[in-house]
Amino acid sequence: MSSHERNAENSAVWKNHVEAPNTPKGFTVRTTVPANPNGVDVMLEQWEAGTEEPPHSHPGDDMTVVIEGKMSVQFFKKESGRLIPDGEKIILKKGDAGYIAAGRIHDAKYIEKCKLVYVHDKAFGFVAE
Which entry of 15, 57, 58, 63 is 20 to 30 Å from 40 by CA? Predict the structure, then answer.
C-alpha cells in the first residue's frame, strides 16, 4: 500500500460516521444536506463485510463510487406482485462506479468491508420493496 493510500484510509473524511435509525446492521454514514431543491445529497457510507440491504428503490437517480472493498448489486422487477431478478448480479470493487435510475428496484450486498461515496439526485429517499 502506498503512503497516499494509507493517508486516504486514515483521513478525517472517514471519521464521525453515525448509525442511522431503521438501517441494516453494519452500516454507518456521514451526510450532507442539500441546500436547495436542485441540489444533491452526498453520503460517505461504511458497510461491514457480510451485511446487506434488502430490495429497495430511491426516488432519485444515484451513483455509488467504491473507495474500498467489494459489493454486489442485483436488480429486480415485479411480476404478479413478486420480485424476480432482472439481469445478472453486478460486482463493484475499489475504483468502480455504479449508477441506478430513480425507481429501479435493487439490493446491495457487501462482500468485503466497504467505504462508499454515494450521491443521490435531490434529497435522499429509501423505499422498501
Answer: 15
